[in-house]
Structures are given as C-alpha cells and as structure tokens.
User: Fold these one by one.
Assistant:
Number 1:
Amino acid sequence: MALRERLRRLAQRPGSADIGPLQAVVAEAGRREDDVRALDDAALTAAVAELRETGLRADADLAAFCALGREAARRALGERPFDVQLVGVLALLSGRVAEMATGEGKTLAGALAAAGHALRGRRVHVLSVNDYLARRDAEWMRPLHALLGMTSGWVVQESAPDERRAAYAADITYAPVSEVGFDLLRDRLATDPDALVLPEPGVALIDEADSVLVDEAMVPLVLAGNADDEPTTDTAVSPDEPTPTDLAVSPDQPTPTDLPGDHAELVRRLRPGRDYTTDEEARNVQLTPAGAREVERALGGIDLYAPAHLPTLTAVNLALHAEALLHRDVDYIVRDGAVKLISESRGRVALLQRWPDGLHAAVEAKERLAASPGGEILDSITVQELIGRYPVRCGMTGTALAVAGQLREFYELDVVVVPPNRPRIRVDEPDRLYATADDRDVAVVEVIADAHAAGRPVLAGTPDVAASERLARRLRRAGLDPVVLNAKNDAAEAAIIAEAGAYGAITVSTQMAGRGTDIRLGGADGADRDRAAEAGGLLVVGTGHYHSSRLDDQLRGRAGRQGDPGGSVFLTALTDDLVTRYAPDQTYDGPTADDGLVTDKGAHWIAGHAQRVAEGVDLEIHRNTWRYNHLIGLQREDVLAERDRVLRGDAGDALMRDRAAAHHRELTDAAGEDAVAAAARQLVLFHLDRTWSRHLAYLADLREGIHLRSLGRGLDPLVEFNREAVPAGKRLLADARDAAVEAFNALPPDVDLTAAGVRRPTATWTYIAHDNPFGTLDERAFRGLVAMFTGRRGRSS
Ligand code: ADP
C-alpha cells in the first residue's frame, strides 16, 4: 500500500467509512464544471434526464450528476455546492449516514441526493423532524428540483388527504416522520383502495438521522379512535349502585367512583414521604402502607388491593402519577383550557399529542380542566419499524459517529464523516464543575454577563423549560435581557434562533435537536458579522450535561459554524439530575472553592460516568423495546397481508362462499352479487381491524401484568411475554374470520352492515406516545431492573 494511502487511512476516524473514493468522484465532477456551465437550462435538464438510463452507479455517472447538480444549484439557488457537500451527496447516494456539522449546508446536500435517488427510479421521502422544516426545505429547494426536472411536494399536519396524495405522488416528498407514520396507520384501516394515501415505500432520506433513528426510534406513533361503542358495564349504572358522583362516604358503602376528578382531589390531600414515595430513577410513585390506608378510608373502607378493586387502584395510581411525577411547565403547560404536552427531548409543545388516555384524563383532573374525549388504540407503529419498511435508507446529521454502532445494529447503516468546508476554530473550554446547582447558576450568570459586556452573542442551553425560565429570571435580575425559547411554534422559534448570533444577543434555549435553523454570526442578515466575530463569535454555555454526549455536541455545534470564531463551555453541578440519577452511589465530599468550583479529578470522573451510564441505559432500553416490538411487528404483518387480500381482492367474498354458503346464496338472490361481495369485504376488514386493536390492548395488559409479576422473581419478562403472546397471535386470523362469518350469517337481506354490528370509528386521532413522562412500559420495566441490580430504593422509602 502506498504511504499516502496508509496515512489517509490512519487519519480516518474509527467507525467512519473511507471517503477517499467519494473525493475522487467529486474531483472528477470539478473537472467537468466548465463544460456544464456552457449548457443552457433546457440542455442541463435534458442532461440530467439522460442519467436516468444509467442507474447512477458508475463513478463517471455519479461525477456527471454531481457536476450537473452543482450547476443547477448555482443557477436555481445562487449557491454553488462546496466539494464537501458533494461528498455528502455521494455518501447519501451510497445509502449511508453523512455526518456534517451544523451550518455546512445539509439541506442542499440532501436535496441533491434526493434528486439522485429519484433518478434511480425510486420515490424519495425526505423525512424531517417537524412540519416547519418539511415545508421550509421543500419550498427552498423547489427551484433546484424543477431545474433538475423533478417534481417535489410537502406534507404537514394540516394537509388534507388529497394534498397528501398529490405530495406523495411527486418524485421527492418532504414530510415529518410522524406524518408519514400516521398516514401509514390510517392507510392500514382503509376500507376502499382509492382511499389509500401512501405509495409503496422507496427511499427514506432522514434529516437529523441520530435523533430520528436512535433517540426517537422506539417512540410509538399511535392512531386512536372512538371505534367501539358497544355499551360496556362500566358506563351502565344500575339503580342500586352508587352513582358516579356519589362521594359521600360512609363505611358500609362499596367503592363509590372511579372518576378522575375525585381521585385528583383525594391524592392532593396525601402527603409526600408519608403517604407515597417516589423513586427518582424509576420515575415511579408508590403508596406507602399509611397512604393506602388513607385512600381506603376515603373511599369508604374498601380493600384497595382486592382483585375486584383493580380499576380503582389503577385510577388512584394514575392520579398519583399526575400529582407527583408530572410537573406543570416542565412536563406540560396549560393553555386555552387544555393540557399541552412539552416534549421532554425538545422542550417544545407537542401539538395534538396526548398521553395514554387514563393519564391524560388524570392530568386534566389535577388541573381541574374539562376532560377531553378518550378512545381506544386502533394501531401503532414505532419510528424504527416505519423506517424499516423503506428498501433504501440514508441520512444526515451533525452527530452520527457517536451512534455508529447503533446505526449498524438497528439499521445496517454505515457512517461517513464529511470534513467541514473550512477548518473549525471553535474553542471548547474544559467543563467547570460546581458543588451545587446554585453555585453553578451564579457562575452561569457571570459567564454570560462577561461575554455580553464585550458584545459577544451567547446561546445558553438548559435541560428543560422550567430551567430556561429560572435562568432567564436570574439574567434579568442581573440587568440582562435574554430571549427565551420554549414551547413556541416552530416558525416563530426559527426566526428567533436565526438572530441568536447577533452582536450582543443573549438566547436561552432547551435542547437544540429539531431546531434546524442556522445561526449566522451577526444575525440572520449578517449585518453585524464583523463586530460579533471580533467579540469572539457565538459563545455556547451549557448548564449541565444532557443524558447523552451527542446532545451536548449538538448544542456546542451551534458555535463556530463554517469556520467562524466561537466557543463553548459547560457548567455542571454534582447535584444535577443526571448525576444524582445515574451515579447515585458516587459521592464527592472533597474540597470546593469559595464559589463552589470543584477541581478534583475524581469528582469530574463522577459527572462523566453518570452520562455514560445514562447512555448505556438508553441503549438497553432501545434493545429491549425492539425485542418486544419485533414479535408484535411479525404478527401485524400476518394481519396486514390478509387485510390486503381482502381489500384489493375477493378473499372476503370467497371466505363467505366457503363458510356461509347457504346464507351467501340467499343474500345474493336478494341483493345481488356485487352488494354481497362488498358487504363481505367490509365485514372481514372490520373484524380484522377490531381483532387487531383488541390484540394490541391485550398485549399491553399482558406486558403490564408480566412486568409486575416478574419484578423480583427473577423471571425473564420477555420469555414470559412470548409464552402468552405467541399463541394469542396465532389465533388472530382465525378469530377474525370466525367473527366475520358469524356477523355475515346475521346479515339481513338488504345487507345492512350496521345490523351486523359494523361501526367504523366516526373520529380518529393520532398522537406520539413519546411523552409519557415515566417512559414506555419497557423503559419503566428496564429502569426497575436497573434499580434492583444497583440495590437502589426510592428516595424516601
Ligand atoms: P445545516 O442544516 O447543515 O446546519 P443549512 O442547510 O441550514 O445547514 O445551511 C446553512 C446555511 O448555509 C444556509 O443559509 C444556506 O443557504 C447556506 N449554504 C449552504 N450551502 C451553501 C453553499 N454551497 N454556498 C453558500 N451558502 C450555502
């Protein structure tokens, strides 16, 4: 091997693929630049179209595409892609994840790669993390795509079904991951092939790939509806039972009520520590024996733990969760008389999202708000499953290398580290560690005030919205005037972020993931660039570390873009949540300076260790959740395959001819073949969907139950789960068919489906189950195990 080659390989970062071959293609594209400039627009578009035939695999074709794409961007957008951007394009076209720092121009690289993938004959979805970015990027890149001879479209939350269909029919579609997931879920309930919205999956090009593929991967996207309106026993009140509002408690009365409002009142009267305990790490809350007695007394002397009172116990637990674990302005805000969730990872209001029904109602009750309608889960899918459907995947992000192992493990994706266009000169100062959060907060204000005195723009990152507010208050008391970013809408936020680099600006924000807006030095128009640069460029101040170093890097990466001057410093405290939660056994009682500064190496080690433990826990949760979901995914595939045969074919009618032959003949005589075939189709679809939704509910209960049973008994919950879930899954299709045949036999001669009990949901809604503050069941199960292994008990138990 030539020495140069060996040196180049040495310089390559571990975990990252070799970019040498890509750079060679880019160099060739550079040599073609002059030729391409000579083409007029029509000739340029035609030259791109010619590449369609080649499949865009050979280096020469890729180089031709890069040259044409660069020229098109120059003409359509006024930006000539840098060589490193073209390296990014090639990485994306090779089906890998490109790590490109903030401000390097990922939007443009992604748009060119999307066009390249489209030339290969597949539809491309450019998946973003929110509506704002999907629409912004699609509109921004539209002239480029048009010049390349491609159509493009975008989907956002408000898009109507027709608009969605049109957007998905384009060569390139920009959409938030969640909207594509919701469209898929809705399509899976379609009763008419013409109502389908999504085409076959082609290429997924994922923006902020680590956020989507790792952090949010196991988040269920949920479709719920008011599907099942059979009267149930819990709403039918017989005269001799107490009425639901009857809380007048006398000792000889049975359970009075399971209304959330009453339970909220009840738990509000309980005293933390005495009546219930919370466990920081497991994020669980439990009644103490004294608390249980208090609840039992208030509910009329019932035995709370008797099997008959399980619904009451559950309801009390939900109320307790809402009371003790969910904090207003941290986990949710109340706006316009409704509870709006704050997405923990992004610190923003998550539109149209709600917690699982019981919990949502409990929080509404806690805040004394009117209850919003509940429903049942019709289907759900995780982001990982959604992405797994695409035969071709690629992505881009500023922070990929740190999760290269997971991208490989879960998606078979490799990472390519693309060097910056101009060398980075950002100065990252070593961490400053303080004994207490209070010491740290004082120091943070000082650091910001000092930087500001010199006119230096400052971006301060906090762990959550409440911390942002606290910091802002401290800054205002110090005579400063910060702009606080939290829980605003994405577009307004983008405008504020764009100004964060202005001379003298102070911006306070929670986590930066999903805030895909560039921070230019000197403000959005760069007016004050020189002054801001002279003052040292953007200074990023982190107040405490996040639960992964990647999130720290995302914040840090906002400074020093495109070779600008800039700096970053993190000020952490030994009392930060991250440290007390993940390194509970490590304590430091050595010396501290007067201002609380701790320089001891061991103490610094503890802070770093806590973050590594947190990262390890997150990874185990991901793996564990994936194991559960894998089985459910396989079962869903069976149901969907059957559904497709019924929806698009005559499997429904064939089933009835076979299993209900006599009635089929009678109905055909009365109503005609077509009407009977249509009714058979609807009946089978209805029962497939209903069987599936009930199966999901059953699996959820099963998991909850197994989780409780296996804790402390050394059983493997997954094995226990599979033992029951596998046979239940095997019965699914047979159960659905039996139910459909039975319903068919009850069809009257006019084939009136409502007479056969077919009631489709009159309303459906979607949410991201993400924001369950104590995590998904798997997370709780896993955290419980961690707590057991480390012998940790609740704080006050
Ligand atoms: P990223 O998503 O990588 O942080 P963006 O796609 O938001 O970066 O781009 C950052 C800024 O750089 C945008 O204002 C964009 O217009 C600009 N930009 C991107 N590529 C180029 C280029 N080749 N020449 C000049 N400006 C560019």
Number 2:
Amino acid sequence: MTVESETKPAPTFAEIISNSWVFFNGEFVRYRDVRIGLMTHAFQYGTACFEGVRAYAGDGGQMYILLLPAHFERLQQSGKILRMSLPLAIDELVKLTVELVRRNGIHYDIQIRPTLFKSSEVIGVRLQDLEQSFSIHTAPMGNYVDLDGLRCMVSSWRRTSDQAIPPRGKITGAYVNSALAKAEALDAGFDEAIMLSPDGHVSEGSAQNIFMIKKGVAYTPPVTDEILEGITREVLMKLLPDDLGIPVVERSIDRTELYTCDEVFFCGTGAQIAPVIEVDRRPVGSGTIGPAVQALQDLYFRAVRGRSPKYAGWLTPVY
Ligand code: PMP
C-alpha cells in the first residue's frame, strides 16, 4: 500500500451524496447534476410524497433491501391522495432500485428514498393540471433513533387528522407536523415526541408507529387513529404472535395507558425497534428495555440482515 492511499481521507457524507447516482425523470444521473427549480410546486407547497426504505449490509458483502415492494405500494397510495401515479409498474421499480444500489457499489447500511412530486414551476395551490416527477436517491444511514431506550413526552402538537392532511399518505408537507413535535421534545430535553390524535388518543411518534405491551398482550392504534399505515407495524402484527407468542390488538390507546403498561416501543423503517423507557417523566415498566422488546429487537435485526430464513421474503438481495 502506498503512503498516499494510507493517508487519503474517507469521503465525507456530502461527497458520497454528491457523487452518487440517482434515478431522476427516467434516467440515471449524478446527484450533483440534478436541477430542481425554486418555483417547483412541491418545494413551495409540500405537494410530494415519498418513501424511506432501508437496505442493510448482510454477510459476504450482500445488501438486502427491506420490504421494497410494500414501500412502492404505499407510494402508490400516497400518490393517489395527491393525484399522482407511479411512473412504472412496481416490479419494474423494484428492479430499478436494485440497479441503483448496485450502480452505487454500496456495501453499508443506507436509506433509499423514492420521491414522487409535483414538478410544475407555476404559481397556484392545487393538485390538478400539474406535471409530476419521480426520483430515487440513496444515502448512508445508521440508527435514526437510539435503540437502548428513549425518553419521550406527549407533544402539545396534535397529529394532523384525515380531515386536514391525511397521515395515511406519506406526504412531504405533513412532516411539518412531525418537525414541530420533535423540535418541542428535543427543546424540552426529551428524545422523542408521542403525538395524540385530535380526539386525544395516542397516534404515533414523529416518524414511527407505537405499540404498548400490557400483561402479555400488545396494543397498537388502529389505522383510523391518524397514523401512517406503517410497513414495519404491519409485519410486526404477525411476527409478535407467531414468534413471541404475544397477541396483537388494534385499538385506541389513552395517554395514561402509556404510564401504566409494561413496555412501549416505536417501530418503523427508520426507527427500527426502539424501546421507550419513559413517558412524561414516568418510567415505563422498570424504566429499562423490557424482555419482549429485547427479544423483538434480536429477531428483527437477524431478519433484516438476512440471517433468518423464515423472513427471507422481506428482503430483496442486491448482488
Ligand atoms: N409514522 C410516520 C409518521 C413515519 O414517518 C414512519 C416512517 N415511514 C412510520 C410511521 C413508520 O412507517 P414504516 O414502518 O412504513 O417505515
């Protein structure tokens, strides 16, 4: 090895992103060559929808994209709300995403971000008579939240309702709601926010769904309590009873049930399986990660890195 190669600094995050290939309006181009104008409707009015997909480094240099078709199905659903459609069939988008990760030569954990957005550069808030664009980019991504135990507050910000900005759609503009809640929680010295629906029931975290466990039963809010219909939530609703013998009940949850249950955790593609150890300064259970969430974390991380044959169906291998 030459001295030069020994001392060459690793590329920064910004350099990795700038040099990466992205898929933009039908072709592969470098991230740095994409031009999106200031008047773009989605930039001005939040009229876009997106997905946060993860790909994990597995054994032997393999990369596994997690639950990829389900993310495109949800993007299609979000697009329908905003009157946009996917540019290609879902199986073609899956192939394209695999090609993008391969083209970028990635062998570390990343987020893959497909985005469907209103791209007309015009003045006027509406959904019809606007052009749409579609992109996919990749970025290095470690843990989004701490996995050892989060201290949370119930936010003074309410989750948006289906009558205002539908949480069922993963809509860019709606993330202002999440950002307000998360910022309030961080300012107050907490790690995360738990938001209530306008009618006062527990909905979800700023970017993750929530479960609580009491007396061996897991509870999670129904999709009609102003939540994003989480893909992780959905697979856990099967995994919890099948693999851990914990039945799951979908029902509305009151704030004080979080104070009095045994375990609480967040789940999501970004959040993964994140234990909540404190809510509004009350310890959840013993105030440390509980046995069910610990077991769930172990199962989940084995599955996403391709080490669980039972859950191989969650994964799209890249190489
Ligand atoms: N709720 C919100 C508001 C989110 O942003 C996310 C992350 N996509 C989730 C829940 C979890 O959804 P998923 O499991 O599909 O990532």
